[in-house]
Amino acid sequence: MKITTVTPSPEPCVEAGWQAFQYYLEQPVSRQLILALRPLGALVFLEALAKPFFKVENEHYIVKGLLNDGSIRVAVHRDHLDEQQRIRQVLESFSPDRK
Fold first, then answer.
1. Which of 28, 47, 75, 81 has the most neighbouring CB atoms within 10 Å?
2. Which residues share a beta bridge with 40?
3. CB atoms within 10 A of CB 44
C-alpha cells in the first residue's frame, strides 16, 4: 500500500508527549489492511459499528482509523519517533490485491 502523503494530525497531542500524523493512503482502508496491522500491537476492530473503527496499540504508538477511509492516524511518543519506520514498513508491504 502506497502512502501518498503524511501530514501533522489536526488533533494536537504534543502536550502529553506524543506527536500525531495523518497517513493518506493510495486506496481506502480495507478489512484486509486492518488485519495486516496485527503484528504492530494489540488490535481492536469494531466491525459491527455503522462506521467500523480500528485501533492498534503499542507501548510507543497508536494507529487508528475507519474502515473504507482514505487515511489513518498515527500517534507516536516523542521519544520513539523512529517507530514510524516499522509502521510504514507494514503499511507499504501490504498488497491490496492479497486475499
1. 75
2. none
3. 11
User: Cell numbers at residue 63, please?
Assistant: 494507529
Q: How does strand 71-77 pair with strand 3-8?
A: unpaired
User: Residue 71: what pLDDT?
Assistant: 96
Q: Across 1-99, where does the E strand assignment appear? A: 3-8, 18-25, 42-46, 53-57, 61-66, 71-77
Whether the Cβ atoms of residue 18 and residue 59 lie closer than 8 Å to each other = no
**CA dist 10 → 6, 14, 49 (Å):** 12, 11, 24
CA atoms in the 13 A half-sphere facing the CB of 72: 30
Could you tell me which of 85, 88, 73, 69 has the C-alpha nearest to residue 19? Answer: 73
